[in-house]
Design brief:
Helix content is about 55%, strand content about 15%. The protein has about 525 residues and is α+β, with helices and mostly antiparallel strands. The strands form 5 sheets. It has a 5-stranded antiparallel beta sheet with strand order 2-1-3-4-5. α11 runs antiparallel to α14.
């Protein structure tokens, strides 16, 4: 029979990791109720493939640890049993070292717990045992057979599996059963040799017992009463154990479950409040954007009112100038009346009539020419006033519509034409020619607005690029690049920065290096 030298528990019951030596001749474990004495004994029983006490199972202790895997590891001796018998306890398992490591791994599979066993030669830690292949692990039946071959007989298992406080039941066994149990536990050959003598002696005693049966008949009533009292006492002990189990296992679990339920409910309520707060923030942002749009519309209306007032004054001045311009026509009309009167008295009527028709057609042509010239003058004056103070020509209508849609949606943006100025006037023509196709590219201030901006661009059929990932211009740029000739006030697309940085500006083709003259698309001349 082998002997336990040490025991280690990992995630067993409420123990995270516990190790204790068991290499003494006598091991005494003392402590109050609930301190873990039965937990330790049940760990040893589980490791040896036995059932736990008090109706508990290894699943009960594995669940208490709140971990996916629980470990039980013991170090046992494997030395020869005696000088006469040189065989080792685990020789049948092909283990010949002086020490053997026994391990039990309890892990969760779905909703149930399963235990697997491992037996290796030498001393091994739990971390090293976890790396063993799955084929090396044994089931419970194979494990029991190997331990039985090593000396853990069923009789020893019966003794080790006795409930706490139930060792006195050994006294209730008959002499024959008790003797057989002793034989099975110790396996003493000398006692076995004397078994026949004891058996014959037992037969003689049985005759004496038969004679004593008559003497025991009068004690049956007392025995029945004592049996009832013992039964009542056992039921009382069971009730005490049940009350202890309820107070130490069931009640803490219920309290923990109630606390967890209250915590989950509080978390759900907090999440709901956060959702409401986020919704209110979005609504407030939308209202602010709407208020900003209304303010801009109000400012635009005020500006438009000022423009209309200026146009009214201009129209009044144009009307006065038109009246002044029509005065010669009125004089011509008076002159016409006088000529008609004169023609009736002194000239031929047909000739005067023809002259009057010519003058009338000429007057009509002059009035139409004056009207056209006056309209063109008013339009030119309005366009000049609209362009006063602007550095760039007005954008196309589709650009204006798309930027208005972005402003109404609250999307911060800018176009390349608004954020690029010419720093070196010598390269203005070259820079404007290169940037002309990209001047209406829209650059978003926040990449999170990309999806909404693309949706508005598709709706408005915007034919220029919309860029969400923009970059700042580096502080140091090549001096002879086109980027050095520009003054940038905001972020630009990365591809445009790289193109502007790669383009070199030279005074003429002769001043450029020889290799540059073949690359006309990447070199600019003033």
């Amino acid at each position: 029979m082998f002997h336990l030298q040490s025991l280690e528990l990992l995630h067993w019951d409420y123990c995270q990791r516990v190790s204790m030596p068991l290499d003494g001749n006598i091991i005494t474990i003392a402590g109050p109720n609930g301190s873990g004495k039965t937990t330790l004994l049940d760990a040893m029983r589980t490791l040896l493939g036995l059932e736990c006490s008090g109706g508990r199972t290894f699943r009960t202790y594995a669940r208490h640890a709140n971990a996916e895997t629980a470990w039980l590891r013991a170090l046992v001796d494997n030395k020869p049993r005696s000088r006469q018998n040189s065989s080792r306890p685990f020789a049948s398992s092909l283990l010949y070292g002086d020490q053997v490591t026994l391990a039990c791994r309890i892990e969760r599979h779905g909703g149930d717990w399963q235990r697997r066993y491992l037996m290796v030669d030498g001393v091994h830690e739990i971390e090293a045992l976890a790396e063993k292949a799955e084929k090396d692990w044994l089931g419970i039946e194979a494990w029991k057979r190997r331990l039985e071959a090593a000396g853990l007989t069923r009789a020893i298992g019966r003794v080790l599996a006795l409930e706490q406080g139930q060792t006195d039941r050994l006294c209730e066994l008959s002499p024959k059963e008790l003797l057989r149990l002793v034989f099975e536990v110790f396996g003493d050959q000398e006692v076995l040799d004397r078994y026949d003598q004891a058996r014959s002696h037992q037969q003689q005693l049985m005759k004496e017992v038969e004679q004593a049966v008559h003497e025991l008949s009068h004690t049956q009533a007392q025995l029945s009463d004592l049996a009832n009292r013992v039964t009542s006492y056992q039921q009382y002990q069971l009730r005490l154990k049940e009350r202890e189990r309820l107070s130490t296992e069931v009640l803490p679990v219920l309290q923990w479950a109630e606390s967890r339920q209250r915590t989950a409910q509080s978390l759900r309520e907090l999440h709901r409040q956060r959702l409401f707060a986020a919704s209110d923030s979005r609504q407030m942002a939308a209202k602010r954007a709407e208020l900003h749009a209304l303010f801009q519309a109000h400012e635009a209306a005020k500006q438009k009112l000022l423009d209309l007032d200026a146009e009214r004054k201009q129209a009044r001045a144009a009307f006065d100038s038109a009246r002044e311009a029509e005065r010669p026509v009125e004089l011509l009309a008076k002159r016409e009346e006088e000529l008609k009167a004169l023609a009736a008295v002194e000239a031929d009527g047909a000739e005067l009539t023809q002259r009057l028709e010519e003058l009338a057609s000429r007057q009509h042509a002059l009035r139409e020419s004056f009207t056209r010239q006056n309209d063109q003058s008013r339009k030119a004056q309005a366009a000049m006033e609209a362009l006063s103070g602007q550095r760039l020509p007005p954008p196309p209508p589709e650009v204006t519509r798309f930027r208005r849609a972005l402003d109404e949606a609250g999307i911060v943006h800018h176009v390349l034409a608004d954020c690029i100025d010419i720093a070196d006037e010598a390269w203005r023509a070259a820079a404007e020619g290169f940037l002309r196709p990209s001047r209406w590219v829209v650059v978003l201030a926040h990449s999170s607005d990309e999806g909404r901006a693309f949706g508005l661009a598709a709706k408005e059929r915007y034919r220029h690029y919309v860029v969400a990932d923009a970059e700042s211009v580096p502080a140091v740029v090549p001096k002879d690049s086109l980027l050095a000739a520009l003054k940038v006030h905001a972020k630009l697309p990365g591809w445009l920065i790289r193109q502007l940085g790669s383009i070199r500006c030279v005074k003429d083709t002769e001043a450029a290096p020889r290799g540059w003259r073949m690359d006309h698309t990447r070199r600019l001349l003033p």
